[in-house]
Amino acid sequence: MERYDKIKQSRMATKRKLPNSDDIENVTGDASRPKNRIASKKHKYAAQDVVVENETVFVQLLKMAGIILKSGNRSNEMTVDHSVAQKKLYQGLRKHPRYPNVIQEFVSGLEAHIETSDKFKNCLLPCGHGHDADAGNHLNSYRESLFKLLLGIDTLQPAVLNTLFEKLPEFMYESVNEDGINMPRLIISQFKWLDRIVDGKDLTSKLMQLIAVAPLEIQRDIITSLPEILEDAQHNDIGKELNSLLQQNTQLTVPILDTLSSLNLHSQLLAEIRQSVMSTLSAVELEDLPVVIKFILQAVSAADAVEVISEMRKKLNLESCKLPQQIQASQSRHKLKGQPSSSANQANSNNDCVALLLDVIKSAVRFQKATSEAWIKAVENLNSVVEHKVMDFLVLLILHTTNTNNSKKQVEKVLRNKIRVGLIQEQLLQNAFRNYSTVLRDYFPSILSLAQTLLRSADQSAVSFGSMMYKHAFTAFDSYCKQEVISALVTHVCSGLAAEVDISLDVLIDLVSQCSSSVALYAVFLKGILDYMENLSPQQIRKLFHILGMLAYCKGHEGSHIQDDMHIVIRKQLSSTISKYKRIGIIGAVMMVSSMSKTRADGDKAMDKDSYRQVTALLDLVHSCIKNSPEASALYYDEMANVVLKDNLAPQIMEHIGKPVLENFQDDYVVDLVPVVDSNNLFPTKALYNLDEEEESQGEIVINLLPLLSRDIHTKVGDVAAASEQSGRSVSPMCLAPFFRLLRLCEEKQHNGNLEEIDALLGCPIYLVELELLEKLEPLAKQEKEFLCDLLFYAINWFREIVNAFCNQKDPEMKGKVLIRLKNITELQPLLEKCLAVTPAYVPPLASFDSEVTEAIPAMNPAVQTKKGKKESGGGRKRKSDESKDSSADNTQVDENQDGDNSQSEKTQQEKENGDKEEGKTLVNLSTYRPYFRELDLDVFTILQCGLLTRSVLDTEMHTKATEILQLGPAELVFLLDDLFRKLEYMLISATKRIHFLKGKVSKDIGFSHLRLKSRQQVAESAVQLLNSLCNHLENAHNYFQVTTSENHGVVDGPGVDLKEYQLMSTSYQLLLQTLRTLFAWNGFSQLEYRKLLKGALDVLAGRLKEGDAVLSLDELVRQSFHYLMNFRSSVPNSCSALSLTQLLIVLEEKSPDAQQKEKIASLTRSFLGQAWVLPTGEKERGNKYNETLQNLLCIYLEYTSDVLKAIEDIAGVGIPELLNSAKDGCSTTYPTLTRQTFLVFYRVMMTELEKSVKGIPAGKSTDASELQIEKLLKWNLAVRVFHILMSLVKVFDSRPVLGVCLKYGRLFLETFLKLGMPLLDFSFKKHREDVQSLLKTLQLSTRQLHHMCGHSKIHQDTGLTNHVPLLKKVLEVFVYRVKAMLTMNNCQEAFWLGNLKNRDLQGEEILSQSSQQESKDEDSSEHQAREAEEEEEEDRSDTENNDKVQDDEDENEEDSD
């Protein structure tokens, strides 16, 4: 080492340091170049390149061997073959008289010969062919260098190696000679591929010493040459040295890892090296990453693949390799100028490195099965959003592309699950496309395939992710990819699946909005969708025309071909006589008007004459096509109203639309109030619900509803004379509400929200019938009843639109009138229920006109006939019939209103008390008719913020006569909350969790047309703004129930309770809780962009406890909000509200999981289960809905309690015995909700949770500590004891459902015990024999009971039960032999004895055999037949019922052995 240092210093002092060259030519090429010059220009160098001749041993022996040394630029010549020359030289040395001293003389001669650089170089280069060499050998033989020949002789090798090592430092700082030869590399090449190495350890030591002092380039050359120099025996030694060097010098990472990949190393050493590499992975340069990752993946074994890859992906951070934003901006500027930039080159280099890295991973997963499985497992094991990286997404694309071991389906499953739980979010996708779009282009087919799969998913989060993949792929990739994306989206649109069509159209709308010029290139694909409009819904048709409209009118005349096609389609559809196609034409025309007017108005408010003419001509065409169709007219009014509301139309168009609307509405629907009305009407007419009686004595107006409806009826039956004759335009009451909606939106737009021009419509009366007439409906004819139903539907819808229009007005008088109109709606709804109850098979008039008529038709028999029971006591069958009666009443309620069951039952009980006159009364639930009511706008719910309002009552001289206090009543509150809850559920829950691809009879979208114009974010923001008001109403309801309970001394059904008010307050209480739960359950809150909105919502709840200016963290806000809501636990009026409160607390707890909050939830549900739920009528809650609520509460309790097994044991061991000791209609003292009617609910949940709980007990291992074995044994002992208690209850509760639960979950419990419990017994038997014996004895009792159940099922021939028997008996038999195996393993096999069990029933009584029964009935049967039957039965028993006796005898033998 010291010698190397001295030589290096002297060389540096005496010679000029040559600069390094980046382009070092290959040694083989360098060596061949002089040879070619010599061969081709031999005559030129003959004078100066002379043969070396002297009398030294070195020269003479070489000459004898056929090697002629040359000086100058001529290479040495070899007149014989390489192997022959080597053999001759070896023999010459061996036979020399001075051997072995001649070897030193030979080496000294060699050293003297190579003193000059030319001669040294000649000895390093391959020898040429001598003049006297054979012509055939000249062509086919290869001549090595002189040093290579000498190194092949064992006696010369050590000395020659030393000579080369001594010469190498002289050339360390010389890169390439004038003739292009790299001397250090040429010297190192002499060590390669030697047939034998005499002293491998010495060579290894010298090489490592040389590496330590050599420059970087030579270090790399030496390291990469090591596999070609060393023998296999030295690989482990050099591997250790390289591992040490790797940790010291990261610049040598690539050559070292390349070398290590080629060495044959022991697995332990390889693992150590891999760990060293992993420790430095985070500091590796990007360009070195492919080599590093390649080494790691090659060095990994199948056993530790998951662990290694998990650690590797954790340290592999591509985010640190991306360009800073400033460089990206500079790059984009240079790109725009058409100039290359250094940052662009850097970006390309980075992308190339990432592409190489992905190629390495692709190669590994393609050819190594364990690697592909480990990558998927590593990604699956990630449990937080922060842990997921862009690299994970790229690797999933690789696995999807390679499809190794069917990895494509696995990738789709993993990605879908990760997206569903929110672990892989859209931000990660955005980062991937922003930073690695060039790399992702290679995986475009997989991206497209995954996007298609996710878009077809039933989970909204997966659908959203798929749509984002489409958008990013379109914006980031080339024109070919853009075309493929558009084609894929068009395919989705034409698929016929509603959810898929909606999402695809939304993606296209976003793409057109962001980059319309790019999408316009592929407009021909989009125009093709026009041929498939028959399969699209009205909402989808709107989106399609919106897309085509933007493309047609966004770029002037560039979209003229699209305009022509749209005009042709719209004219064709409008002229159709079929309502479906006319509806398409109306929607298309309105959307086209929107596109033409809105885009022309951008920037310049004035439209040009040509555009104005086109719009007005199209509107005139629509008017001419709809004037004789009320449904078409109403649809046009609604569609135009939505356009006016959403789009910024040009002022000329607004004036063209708004002016005739006001005039026509006044002419068609508003008349002067007169005392006497036309007698041609079907019923006497009366103006009702006038709010302006005291304000004006003259010039009052009225809505002409009843006369218009009468005229409409006459028109339908053919009385043309009575029909409207107003300039050929029909006037129908069906258009009243839609026409008014268009009118008020035009007024709002033209007058900045001021509705003074039409405020008289808020308080004006409406022509209806005398309300007393609705009390006597039975004598009326069917047509008259249907007329009254129509009249009430139109009146309610008119008031709903009035509330929509004036809810935002600030004037207190108007606010008061709006509250009164709400009250009018709640007063008319019971009247409508009465009319509907006596009008079967009635179909109401449409209120939503953008759907098929048949889609909104409710069930044929929405009314339920109720009868007053004469006897309420009886046996089990009578009790079941009562329950089924409650069940049928419950089933009439629709899913949207979850409180309907209890409220309906309360209503029924109240009606029962009214006497026999209520018998036979038909109840109608208006929730079935919701599609026939006009939709309330979101702005209506600002009424919830109203407190007390003062309304002035004026006298005839317009002076204040009195003041009237107005407030939101319970009925109006329930009305608003019910609608708000359904809207939030539709937008925030249903839209994200329930995507139905199969069309049902009734569309779930009917009644939400206006709501769909808003995004989910807008709906959530509106709900958050209402939170304070909702909390106020919740606290008012809480106080109401607290006061009611205290006034009645804790009795719910006290004499002072107003049943109707109590019912309404109870319903509003539950709706408030459900509304809050629906809001906070929105999965959008899990996204970072909505985190601020979530904190704002939680801040409202937390602020109800105490106000403060301090900014709280999310965890603290959740904790305080949780505490606030827990205060309502004492006032919940029914079990449904209790469940809603619990679910709300669970949703909050999930925002910030906390152990204390989980304990509080468990304690809360335990208190709810321990509470007797009584209706205000004095009866206990019951019915299917109540049972379902109890089941949910019990499941939550067992899920959140700290010890599930102890909780189940408490219910089974304490609650159920109390129930058995109680009266026939009694209940458990500890658990009042546990009755004989609810026993099945408790039993099913306990069996389910018991089976789920034991699955969580880890399987026993031989390596478990004694304490751990005891802990597991205690858990299994408790589980088996609880299982036995539950099994023994079958003797008392022997109903068919209970038996079914036992057979099913008994088998599952035993399967889990065999899988997880028996391995524990195998290793615990010797140390804990008594515990194992006790466990098996207890389990024996349960298995015997299961045998009895199998016999019972077989005797009764119950198919529902016998289906469980074969699998159960199989498990019981496996259990017997598994116990035998356990005893054999523990050298206790003599304790096993196999016997037969007798068939017994549930009570343990022996079941007589078939032959015995036959003998008792027919004594004349032959003995032969009886014997045959007994033999068959004996065989059956011995095959299937042999378990329990085994256990009994086994336990006895175990005691003997002890």
Q: Can you describe this structure?
A:
This protein is mainly α and 1458 residues long. 62% of the residues lie in helices and 3% in strands. The chain contains 61 helices and 11 strands. The strands form 5 sheets. The protein has a 3-stranded mixed sheet. Strand 1 (67-68) and strand 2 form a beta hairpin. Helix 21 packs across helix 23 (426-440) and helix 30 (538-553) runs parallel beside helix 32. The two termini are 75 Å apart. The N terminus and C terminus are likely disordered.
Strand order of the largest sheet: 1-2-3
| Structural Rg | 46 Å
* Strand segment count: 11
Q: What ranges have pLDDT less than 50 throughout 5 or more consecutive residues?
A: 1-48, 322-343, 599-603, 719-727, 859-864, 866-920, 953-961, 993-1002, 1410-1458
Number of helices: 61
Helix fraction bin? 55-70%
User: Based on helices, strands and strand pairing, what is the structural class?
Assistant: mainly alpha
Dominant shape: flat
Strand content: under 5%
First-to-last CA distance: 75 Å
The description of the largest β-sheet is: 3 strands, mixed
Mean pLDDT: 78
Topology:
Layout lengths: L1 H13 L12 H14 L16 H8 L2 E2 L8 E2 L3 H14 L5 H13 L3 H8 L3 E2 L5 H6 L5 H6 L5 H11 L15 H7 L10 H14 L2 H14 L5 H14 L4 H10 L4 H13 L9 H11 L5 H11 L9 H13 L4 H26 L1 H12 L9 H13 L4 H14 L5 H15 L3 H12 L4 H17 L2 H15 L4 H17 L1 H5 L2 H5 L10 H16 L6 H15 L4 H23 L7 H18 L3 H17 L4 H19 E3 L13 E3 L12 E3 L1 H12 L19 H15 L9 H4 L2 E3 L13 H25 L5 H26 L25 E3 L10 H16 L8 H14 L8 E3 L24 E6 L5 E7 L3 H24 L22 H10 L1 H21 L11 H22 L10 H13 L10 H13 L8 H17 L3 H15 L14 H17 L3 H17 L18 H17 L10 H23 L7 H29 L4 H28 L2 H4 L2 H21 L24 H8 L5 H18 L2 H15 L1
Parallel strand pairs: 2-3
Antiparallel strand pairs: 1-2, 4-6, 5-7, 8-9, 10-11
Helix pairs in contact: 3-5, 10-12, 11-12, 12-14, 13-15, 14-16, 15-16, 16-19, 17-20, 19-20, 19-21, 20-21, 20-22, 21-22, 21-23, 22-25, 23-25, 24-25, 25-26, 25-27, 26-27, 27-30, 30-31, 30-32, 31-32, 32-33, 32-34, 34-37, 35-37, 36-39, 37-39, 39-40, 41-42, 42-46, 43-46, 45-46, 46-49, 47-48, 48-49, 49-50, ...
